[in-house]
Amino acid sequence: MDENEAQITVESQTMTDIDNRDPKEIHAEGARVEFADVIAEPDGLHSLDFMWKVSYHTFTQTRRWIYRFFTFILGFPLSLIWGLLFACLSFLHIWIVTPCLRTIQFNFYCLVRPLLQLIRVCLLPLFRVTGKILSKVKLIIRKEGLSPVQLHHSGIKTNGWTFH
């Protein structure tokens, strides 16, 4: 089985899995809003049990049927629009963006390689030395109850903290 046949098999398995409609869990967090996420009664303020059950049923059924209504009305046109958009983006990426980037990479390879060597030779040692110097710096933070005159002479004061 070649790669195209394997991809078609995976796509057909995904399409026929009617129970698991989010196999990659792209809506694991945001789109799953349950009754308890929206409505909660604190201790001491409870409605009648009957009203709580009716409210729960009303919430879940309204959410289910309004979602189905919008899916029925807008599902096909939006899937067509998204399919066209991603087809255009794929086309642009495959036939324009990637060849342009490869052309730039090919043409500027002779400039990029010496530039990378220059960075390795000049800047890398500078960054290493700076890192070693700064690794020896110690910052002592302490809270002091000093007067404004003492704070002025002893360091910088921010919200009661003095830095030396």
TrEMBL record:
It comes from Larimichthys crocea. This is Uncharacterized protein. The lineage of its organism: Eukaryota, Metazoa, Chordata, Craniata, Vertebrata. It comes from the Eukaryota.
